[in-house]
Specification:
mainly alpha
Length: about 120
């Protein structure tokens, strides 16, 4: 068991040495020429990288088509019962915070938007 004196010394050491790297940040308001695009191929690769999240399973490749159901232009699949229950709940305006479809649509676009903003 640590004595009170040793515990205070331990906490003091942690506090004195833990902030230096955390506070030393590179400026985010300037372009770093070391990793900035140097060729046309670099720029094209960056643009392709921004579009790549559109192919992720929980965005346009799987979930985005369900917005047609939410809008009332289509019906949920042929399984009946709980088939596509998260989509049915959104369509009926009875969804909850743990609805997987709503979470996918809400969180899904963020990485692609971030990449586009970097461009």
């Amino acid at each position: 068991m640590l004595s009170r004196k040793n515990a205070l010394l331990f906490v003091a050491c942690l506090l004195m040495g833990s902030c230096s790297k955390y506070l030393d940040k590179t400026p985010l308001d300037s372009v770093n020429t070391e990793n900035y695009w140097k060729t046309e191929e670099d720029a094209i690769a960056a643009i392709n990288g921004a579009y790549q999240p559109l192919q992720w399973p929980k965005l346009y490749n799987l979930r985005m088509w369900t917005t047609d159901i939410w809008a009332g232009n289509s019906l949920v699949g042929a399984g009946g019962g709980t088939d596509g229950i998260e989509t049915q709940d959104i369509s009926n305006f009875v969804t909850s915070t743990d609805n997987a479809a709503a979470l996918d649509i809400w969180r899904g676009p963020a990485p692609g938007i971030l990449r586009a903003n970097w461009l």
